[in-house]
Write a structure and sequence with these properties.
The chain is of the alpha+beta class and 350 residues long. It folds into two domains: 234 residues, Aminopeptidase (3-Layer(aba) Sandwich); 89 residues, Elongation Factor Tu (Ef-tu), domain 3. Helices cover 27% and strands 29% of the residues. The chain has nine helices and 17 strands. The strands form three sheets. The protein has an eight-stranded mixed β-sheet with strand order 1-2-12-3-13-16-14-15. It has a six-stranded antiparallel beta barrel with strand order 4-5-8-7-6-9. Helix 7 packs across helix 9. The longest helix is centred in the C-terminal third of the chain and has 17 residues. Keywords: Aminopeptidase, Hydrolase, Metal-binding, Protease. GO terms for molecular function: aminopeptidase activity; metal ion binding. It comes from Halanaeroarchaeum sulfurireducens. This is Peptidase M42 family protein.
Length: 350
């Protein structure tokens, strides 16, 4: 079971589109209080909580989990009072029909819906047309004049969804990547590291790993570990098991590659050894596409050894992402065990 479900729910239900992670940043800073030795925020909005090493403070490890969720930015308000939007992150437009959303206006949040015309009124050409984010219209249910008064170009929009337990899983929006943010915060509360650990809640990952790249200029870690979600395609729609990437219930995923990084072999082998020693369930992740903050750190901080631990997640980048509770716990425990075991003496050079 997830140990602090109320915190998990708060993290996932709180809004925070790329570049506008203010609300989630407040939660992270609150959770760092009394846990880390120093907290700082940079000009991009990355939050870093540092725990000084009790034995070798000069050796530094960075752990990154991004705060942002995919969302939208208002690009136009029509004369009829409907909002048109640009995507912030990788939306699959097929999942956007008939969704409830929250419009984050300057003077407060406003509800809205992404409408979908009923099939009774659509001709064959309309029914066969491919969806596109550019075709999304948000209906706020108020007079056009009121929409113009309340909403402006540049306002943010996020999906409105509750986080709930469903059997042995948890479903909700923004599980990518708030589940990993949760895992990092939990691990920070558990560890007593021999080396200095920087717990970094990063921004703008969904639009190009931007926060991690900027943070890698300020931090100069000897080792970097990212925590993120990964694909779990163990569903009926995917017939070939080779395309599953990971499966729910099989434990933490230890990443070997994605499209942004090939993790250091010595790092991922050590993660496997620790998982086996601690009798923690794990699986190997080979992700054909998609990137994480691991790649961002390696690109900006130079030739650093990097690794990544992932949370297997079904239905990524939809409003109903799903994780298994036992996998979340395995990720927390593996990250904490890895950090506690790091003594600065491991040679990760190849």
């Amino acid at each position: 079971m997830v140990r602090e479900f109320d915190l998990f729910r708060e993290l996932t239900e709180t809004s925070g589109a790329p570049g506008y992670e203010d609300r989630i940043r407040t939660v992270v800073r609150r959770e760092f209080e009394g846990v880390v030795d120093v907290v700082r925020t940079d000009a991009m909005g990355n939050v870093v909580g540092t725990v000084e090493g009790r034995r070798d403070p000069e050796y530094e490890v960075a752990v990154a989990a991004h705060m942002d969720e995919i969302g939208f930015m208002v690009r136009h308000v029509t004369d009829d009072g409907f909002l048109q939007v640009d995507p912030l992150g990788g939306w699959d437009p097929r999942v956007l029909r008939a969704q409830r959303v929250t419009v984050h206006a300057a003077d407060g949040d406003r509800p809205g819906v992404i409408g979908s015309p009923p099939p009774h009124t659509l001709d064959e050409e309309d029914l066969e047309a491919e969806d596109a984010v550019e075709d999304v219209y948000i209906d706020m249910g108020i007079d056009p004049a009121a929409v113009t008064d309340q909403v402006a170009t540049g306002d943010l929009v996020t999906v409105d969804q509750r986080t709930e337990r469903v059997g042995s899983t948890i479903t909700g929006k923004a599980i990518d990547n708030r589940v990993s943010l949760y895992a990092m915060l939990q691990a920070a509360k558990m560890v007593d590291p021999a080396v200095t650990v920087h717990f970094a809640a990063t921004v703008q990952e969904e639009v190009g790993l931007r926060g991690a790249r900027a943070l890698g200029v300020d931090l100069d870690p000897d080792l970097a570990i990212a925590v993120d979600t990964t694909v779990a395609n163990d569903v009926p729609q995917v017939g070939d098991e080779a395309d599953y990437v990971t499966e729910l219930g099989e434990g933490a995923a230890i990443k070997l590659k994605d499209s942004s990084v090939i993790t250091n072999p010595k790092v991922h082998r050590r993660l496997r050894r620790i998982a086996e020693t601690e009798e923690l369930p794990y699986q190997i992740e080979v992700l054909p596409s998609g990137g994480t903050d691991t790649g961002g750190f390696q690109q900006s901080a130079g030739a650093k050894p990097v690794g990544a631990i992932s949370v297997p997640t079904r239905y990524l980048h939809t409003p109903t992402e799903v994780v298994r509770e036992t996998d979340v716990t395995a990720v927390v425990d593996l990250l904490a065990a890895f950090l506690d075991a790091e003594d600065g003496e491991n040679d990760y050079t190849l």
